[in-house]
C-alpha cells in the first residue's frame, strides 16, 4: 500500500538569523518579532483547524526571547527540534564553539519541553566537518540539513572529504537518519527580501505560483514512489504574511485531498528508520 508523508516544518528563527549576520538595527529586529508575535499564531491556528502536527526548529535565542510564543507551540502538540542557539552556521565555528552552542540550545529546549530534542537542523543548512559526530555524541535521532535525496530518508555519513583536484572521499555511515531538504521547498529564497552592502535577496515572488510548484513536488513523489517523505520548510516571519497564509492553506487543503499523511519530523524519522533497518 502506498504511503506519502508530508512534514510541514517551521524554522522559528525570529531575529536570530538577522543578528548572526550583523543585522541588528530596529527594522530587521522587528521582522523577527513579527514572526513571533503574529506569524506563529496564524500558523498555529491553521494547524489546529486542519489537525496537522508539525515540527518547529527553534533556536535557543527564540525560546528565551519569546517564551510565551514558544510555549504556545508546545501547547499545540507540535515538535520542538534543535536549530542552534544563536543561528550561527556550524561551518563558521570551531568544534568547541559548535558543541557549546549545541549544548546551550539543548538546555533551552529541555527547559521548554521537559525533554531533549530528537532532531536537528543547522542554521543556513551548512554543516561543519564535526556536526554529524556531535549529533551522534549528543543522542540525536535525525538531522534535516542535507540534500542527498528528495523523498527518501537515508543514513547520514560522517567524514566525507573533498579537495580540489581529488576524487570525493565518502565517509562512514552513521546511525543518524537524514531527512532531506531542498532550497526549492523553502519559503525564504522565494519570498524574503533583504539587502546588505554586499548582498541582495530579491524574493517577493507570488505565493500562488510558488505553491503550484510545491503541489507538483507532491504529485511527483506520489507518481514516482510508493513511499516517501516530502519536507516543506517555512519561517513564521516569511510565510506568516496574510496573503501567503491564504496560499499555504490552499496547499494544505490540496495535500489533504491528495492523501498526504501529515507527521512531525520525529514521527517520520522513526518510520524511515524502521524501513532502513528492516
Automatic annotation (TrEMBL):
Residues in NodB homology domain copies: 26-263
Family matches, as PROSITE patterns: NODB (PS51677)
Domain of life of the native organism: Bacteria
GO process terms (BP): carbohydrate metabolic process
UniProt-recorded Gene Ontology molecular function terms: hydrolase activity, acting on carbon-nitrogen (but not peptide) bonds
Pfam families, alphabetized: Polysacc_deac_1 (PF01522)
Functional summary from the UniProt entry: Is involved in generating a small heat-stable compound (Nod), an acylated oligomer of N-acetylglucosamine, that stimulates mitosis in various plant protoplasts.
Family recorded in the similarity comment: Belongs to the polysaccharide deacetylase family.
Protein name in UniProt: Chitooligosaccharide deacetylase
Amino acid at each position: 500500500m502506498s504511503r506519502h508523508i508530508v512534514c510541514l516544518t517551521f524554522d522559528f528563527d525570529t531575529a536570530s538569523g538577522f543578528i548572526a549576520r550583523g543585522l541588528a538595527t530596529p527594522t530587521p529586529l522587528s521582522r523577527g518579532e513579527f514572526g513571533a508575535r503574529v506569524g506563529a499564531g496564524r500558523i498555529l491556528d491553521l494547524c489546529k483547524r486542519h489537525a496537522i502536527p508539525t515540527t518547529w526548529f527553534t533556536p535557543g535565542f527564540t525560546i528565551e526571547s519569546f517564551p510565551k510564543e514558544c510555549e504556545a507551540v508546545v501547547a499545540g502538540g507540535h515538535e520542538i527540534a534543535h536549530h542552534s542557539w544563536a543561528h550561527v552556521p556550524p561551518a563558521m565555528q570551531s568544534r568547541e564553539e559548535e558543541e557549546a552552542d549545541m549544548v546551550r540550545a539543548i538546555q533551552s529546549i529541555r527547559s521548554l519541553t521537559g525533554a531533549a530534542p530528537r532532531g536537528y537542523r543547522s542554521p543556513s543548512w551548512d554543516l561543519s566537518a564535526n556536526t554529524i559526530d556531535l549529533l551522534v555524541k549528543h543522542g540525536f535521532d535525525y538531522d534535516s540539513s542535507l540534500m542527498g535525496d528528495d523523498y527518501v530518508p537515508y543514513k547520514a555519513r560522517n567524514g566525507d572529504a573533498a579537495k580540489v583536484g581529488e576524487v570525493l572521499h565518502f565517509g562512514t555511515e552513521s546511525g543518524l537518519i537524514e531527512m532531506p531538504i531542498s532550497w526549492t521547498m523553502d519559503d525564504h529564497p522565494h519570498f524574503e527580501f533583504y539587502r546588505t552592502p554586499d548582498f541582495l535577496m530579491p524574493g517577493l515572488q507570488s505565493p500562488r505560483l510558488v505553491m503550484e510548484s510545491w503541489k507538483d513536488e507532491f504529485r511527483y513523489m506520489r507518481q514516482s514512489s510508493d513511499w516517501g517523505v516530502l519536507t516543506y520548510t517555512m519561517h513564521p516571519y516569511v510565510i506568516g504574511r496574510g496573503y501567503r497564509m491564504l496560499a499555504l492553506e490552499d496547499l494544505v487543503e490540496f495535500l489533504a485531498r491528495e492523501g498526504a499523511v501529515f507527521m512531525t519530523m520525529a514521527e517520520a524519522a522513526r518510520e524511515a528508520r524502521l524501513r532502513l533497518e528492516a
